[in-house]
Structures are given as structure tokens and as C-alpha cells.
Amino acid sequence: MTENTYHSPVLLEESVAGLNIKPDGIYVDVTFGGGGHSRHILSQLGENGRLFAFDQDADAAAGAIDDARFCLIPQNFRYIKNCLRMYRVNQVDGILADLGVSSHQFDTASRGFSIREDGPLDMRMNTSSGITAADIINNYDESLIADILYKYGELRESRQIASRIVRHRPLDTTLQLVGIVKNFAPRGRENRLLSQVFQALRIEVNDEMKALEELLSQSGEILRPGGRLSVISYHSLEDRLVKNYIRCGNFTGEATKDFYGNVICPMSPVNRKVILPSENEITINSRARSAKLRIGEKK
Fold first, then answer.
1. How many CA atoms lie less than 13 Å away from 108 in the CB half-sphere?
2. From 3.40.250.10, 1.10.150.170, 2.60.40.1470, 1.10.10.10, which CATH number describes the 109-206 domain?
3. pLDDT digits 0-9 by tens, 216-260
């Protein structure tokens, strides 16, 4: 399994440059995937530098890098602080996150992420534990399914879609679900709606928003002063959390100030405007189209 077959790294140069790498520093790639970002980080480290990577997907282990400076930790990045402590690492110089689903996960029908390929309604990043999308579809109350579709998919038709799902369950495969909900979209916009439905279910299955909040909060604790946080997000829910945390140190976006009127925040933005992929990158890799990069620096 090569890097290109697993996942083409998005905003590779920009996200790694944002880390402002020191050759002897300690860095963390919390979304190893196919290892594209990790390999680029390693290429800039000296012999005393170290790179830790996280990935809860067992498939990622096949691409582990044979390098004494590298360590792959098979865990969800929400456990970053405790996992690094096991390696006697309390502070790091940079953290990189490329959020979302890898090309490998999308293209493997049996994982259940694709709206085009038939497969089981799974959608787990970690296939060894947790609930599946089928569990949600077939067992959750209609009102709860509607809330998930509205909150995580930002679907105005959430209640109507949930009602139709409940009327037609049990549903076991991705294309069964596609057939049930695709007609809610105007002709020619079906893929957009289907992507929102699948996104909502995937976020619920993997508890993605809470995990991201935990990662961001811990990053403010384990980064050294001057250390960098480089995060690529793919939808507005993720991007809003990243933006608010870097700018305000919380997830509401409301700045907390001290007695002197200074904003209390562990980070400061490096890029005032979000960094987007070039048209050339989007042409080469269509999955880069929705990517947004934000970089913060620990004060």
C-alpha cells in the first residue's frame, strides 16, 4: 500500500511549512493515514528530531515508516496527552492534523463511507470497537436521527429524511440508504445531500466533534511556547472549532479577557486568513476542494 493509493496529502507544503520545523524538534502527526505529511516532516528533521503519529485505523499500520525517529501510535488523537506521556514526552514543538476521511477509507467499499459503492453501513474509523452507522439508522429514535442530520449534516430536511429512514428500516447497506434519501435533493444536487447525510452519520459514529475539541484543548497544554498547531479541516463544523480555539482559546468564539482587557488564549493565529488549496492542487486531487488550513502558535 503506497502513500498515493492510500491518500494524497492535501496542502502538503503549506501545512508542514506552517509547523516552522526545527531539525531537533519533537512533532506529532495526529492523522497518519498514508503517511504523506509524516514523510515530509521527517525529511526536514535531523538525526535528533522525533516524530510521533496517531491513527486509530488498523489499515494505517501497513504504511508505518521504518525510521528510528518515527513512532506510530494506534490510538485516537483524543488521547494524545496520555499517550505521549507513555513515551516520556510532555511537550512538543508542533502538531499537524489532516481531518476527515482518507482516500483509502472512501475507496474501500466495505468501510461504508462511500455514497457510490455498495457496502455495509459501518463508517467506523476504528473497526474494532464502537457503534456503526447501521446501529444508528436501525435503533435510534426518529427524533434523534433527525437531530444528528441537522446538527452534523446541516440538513434543513432532517426531520423528513429521518421519517423516511425509520419507515424503511432495517437498512443494512450504503446503497439502500442512498436509495431512500436521494430524492430529497433537487435533480443534479443529489451528491451534495448524500454527502451531508453520510457526514452526519460518520461524525456521530466516531464522536468526531468531541474528539477534535479534546485534541485542540490538549494541544494548548502540550505545545511548547512558540510551538505550532497546523490543522486542515473539510467542513464548516470542524473549521469553526479550529478557528475559535486558535483565536479565543475556546469553542464559542467569545473572547475571555483579563483585568487589563487582554484576551486569555494559549494560541495566536499565524495566518489571519484561511489557507486554501490552489486550483492546480484541486485539479490534481478533487478531494482537496473543501480543505481549509489554519495555523496557530503557542504563546
1. 18
2. 1.10.150.170
3. 999 999 999 999 999 999 999 999 999 999 999 999 988 888 888
